Structures are given as C-alpha cells and as structure tokens.
Amino acid sequence: MQSADVIVVGGGIFGSAVGYGLRREGLNVVILDEGDNVLRAARGNFGLVWTQSKGVGVHRYHEWSCESAALFPDFAADLLEYSEIDVAYRGGGGVELLLGEEELEGRKQFIANMQKQAAGSPFDCEIIDRQELQKFAPDLTLGDELAGASFSPHDGDVNPLLLLRALHTAFDRRGGRYLTNHRVESIDHHGSGFTVHTAQGDITAAKIVLAAGHGAPRLGPMVGLNVPIRPQRGQVLITERARPLLPIPMGSIRQTNEGTIQLGNSKEEVDYDDGTTLDVTRAIASRAVRCFPQLAGVRLVRTWGCIRVLTPDMAAIYDESTSCPGAYVVTSHSGVTLAAINAAHVARWIAHGEMQPGFEQFSAQRFDVQAAA
Ligand SMILES: Cc1cc2nc3c(=O)[nH]c(=O)nc-3n(C[C@H](O)[C@H](O)[C@H](O)COP(=O)(O)OP(=O)(O)OC[C@H]3O[C@@H](n4cnc5c(N)ncnc54)[C@H](O)[C@@H]3O)c2cc1C
User: Fold this and answer.
1) Is 234 found in the same domain as 294?
2) Is 317 exposed, middle or buried (0-12, 13-18, 19+ CB in 10 A)?
3) Percent of the chain with pLDDT over 90
4) Are residues 75 and 190 in the same domain?
5) Is 89 inside any structural domain?
6) Which of 35, 31, 36 minimizes the C-alpha distance to 21?
C-alpha cells in the first residue's frame, strides 16, 4: 500500500495549488485525480484574477481575493522557476464594461454597497467614464451604448491552462506525486489517519484534503464534512487571433497572451449540462460587438460550456472536520484568482495549523448558522 503525509483528492486548480503549496512546505504529497470524463472547471474557465465583484455579504472574501491577487506576481515567478512555464500573468487592473445607464447606475449602487460593507477598510473600485475607458482600448472605437466601466487596480488575468500545467510540472519537479485516473471511491478514518480506496489500490496518509470540485459533496460525509456546492454553467467563446487590441482584461472580454479574444461568460442554471446553445452564444457575441463594433470583423473559432463550482454565498469554503481531524475541504468559485493564496496561506494552514486573521469565516459552519437563523 502506498503512503504519504497528505492525500489531495482532485487535481483541478484548487487541488493542484494546495498540493503544490504543501509540497513547498516539505510534506510528502500525493494528488489523486479522476479521468478526463468528469466535470473539470479548471479546464474551461475565463482566466481572470478578479477581485472587484467578489465578497458580496462576506467582506473577508473580498480581502482574501485581493490578497491572492497581490501574491500573484511572486507566485507566477516561482512557477516559472520550477516549471519553466510562463503563465502569462498580467496585473495592474481590469474593468467591467457597462452598457447603458441602467448598468452604470446598478454598478454605482453595487460599489456604494460594497464600500458600506467594507466599513472603513478599502474597497478599491471606481467608475470611469468613456474618455478614461478609451485609454484602455486605444485602437478600438467604443460602441455608442457604452456608458463607462468600473475599474479595480487589483484585477488581472492569466492563461489558466498554462497555470494548471505549470502547477502540475512544478509539483512533479519538486517531488510530488500526481496520479491521474485515480478516482477515490471511498475514504476510511482510523487512528493513524486516512485510507482512500481507488480501483488502482489503497493509499494511506495522516491528512486528507478534499479538492474534488463537484466530486466533493459525495466524499465529504465520509470524513464528517459538509460541502454545500451547486453547479452553474458558463459558456465561453474564442475568436481567431488578432493583433494586440486589449491591453487589460475587461470582465467578459479579454485578449489572451496568444492573441485570441475570449468572450463570456453566461450564468445558467442547467444542472450539470455542460453543452453550448446558439441563443447564449449569440447573446455573448452580440454584447461584445455592442461594446466594440470592430469585433464584428473577427471570426469565432470555438465555444464551450463549463460548470462552475458555487457555494451558497459565492465565497470560499476552507474547513477541517471536527469528527475526523486531519480531513479538510477546500473549494470555491474563483479557483484561478485564489491559486496564489491557496498555494501559500491555505497550504500553511493544512501543514502547520497557521491561520490568517478572519480565516475562520470560511468554515462551512456559517451555513448551519444561517439555516438555523
Ligand atoms: C465558465 C467558467 C468561467 C470561470 N472563470 C473564472 C475566472 O475567470 N477566474 C477564476 O478565478 N475562476 C473562474 N472560474 C472558476 C474556476 O474555474 C473554478 O473555481 C475552479 O476551476 C475550481 O477548481 P477545482 O479544482 O475546485 O475544481 P475542478 O477544476 O472541477 O477540479 C476538480 C477535480 O477533482 C477531480 N475529482 C472529482 N472527484 C474525484 C474523485 N472521487 N477522486 C479523484 N478525483 C476527483 C476531478 O477529476 C477534477 O480534476 C470559472 C469557472 C467557469 C465554469
């Protein structure tokens, strides 16, 4: 039987970042990942390192996202050193485009509410007008309906597939074990830790981390953990390559490091259906052209649907089991944004019990309290 200090279940962006961080802390780590036939949000997302819309109702989560964004330059440099893969991280700010007065007023109200919720601590996001927005897209004509945008200096983006590959490569080169096609069927808790059962054999470890995305709700109860997540589909479109047009990410429109323009992304309640539909594709493309009419001349080459991993309040869940100490769950939407902090603070929490201020707010027990209330 194989053994390790920590078993991480799930090799998506959450499990890979936490597993990499645990390996950096010197632990013997094995990541077990299911095959290509399951839902994997890490392989179909938009690639934003995004803060400006995060943390409604949970200000600590907004701060947490900003802290992760601040760690990203060093994180990307570390991955470059150990994997030789440049993840194309681009920081310095991002905008959400606002079409029409209604969206503009709605965003102003949103910012006011977030500032109120922040109660004196910073919420760095401001409305910019068309003139200022034009500076971020100097070679594009702004659509007549564009009323402005909201700008946050903390936002940025990354190539999410390169990020995942860099994490896997750096983890491997630093001596971690990543085992694909290892679906965890069940988990036993015993005196010296945990044994997981897979079709390829059993593995034991003192600690186990559930980072299995939509696979986690089935596994959680085996180690006394509640994982209340739900699916939501996002469709994403990709154009052919274009010359550099968008120097910063714009929420639902961003130019990748390869020159393609990525458009998205819808929010659809369709259970686990990760298909694509013409009506949503058309709506996404049409919105992009209303923002920047010249985009009508760029051809679409690909579209996909992918299922988000959403908690009830959209903030992260980081929890240790009380009935099976040493079993953890880590999950959230925004796994790209949180990759840097997951590899740093979250790994140190699991490895050494070090908790950042306010970290207890991310326990899933907050939902028990809300349900009781
Ligand atoms: C359309 C869309 C756009 C998005 N855009 C962004 C964005 O711009 N920025 C951002 O920060 N986030 C974004 N996200 C969210 C981000 O992709 C997710 O937060 C992230 O991928 C979740 O990572 P994960 O590792 O928890 O889950 P996943 O990526 O789904 O990984 C879970 C892994 O667990 C494995 N697994 C499941 N069950 C088992 C089992 N029993 N045994 C072994 N392995 C198992 C699966 O094989 C899978 O590899 C987006 C998501 C979507 C869908």
Assistant:
1) yes
2) buried
3) 94
4) yes
5) no
6) 31
How many CB atoms are closer than 10 A to CB 373? 5
Reading the block at residue 290, the tokens are 């209303």
Work out the end-to-end distance of the chain between its first and last CA atoms, rounded to an integer number of angstroms.
Answer: 46
Q: How confident is the model at residue 370 (pLDDT cuts 50, 70, 90)?
A: low
156 touches 72 (CB < 8 A): yes
| Residue 139 alpha carbon to ligand 1 centre in Å | 35
CA gap 177, 31 in Å, rounded? 6
Residue 225: per-residue pLDDT:
97
| Domain finish residue from 152, 175, 201 | 152
Query: Which residue's alpha carbon is nearest to atom 38 within ligand 1?
Result: 215
Q: Would the pTM of this model clear 0.85, i.e. be above it?
A: yes
Are 44 and 306 contacting, i.e. CB atoms less than 8 angstroms apart?
yes
Q: Do residues 265 and 236 lie in contact, with contact meaning Cβ atoms separated by under 8 Å?
A: yes
Our mutation pick for probing the ligand 1 site, out of 16, 230, 303, 308, counting the most ligand atoms within 8 A of Cβ, is 308
147 neighbors 98 (Cβ within 8 angstroms): yes
Pocket of ligand 1 (CB under 6 A): 9-15, 32-34, 38-42, 44-48, 50, 183-184, 211-213, 215, 219, 234, 236, 265, 306-309, 331-337
Q: Which two tokens stand for residue 184?
A: 């965890």
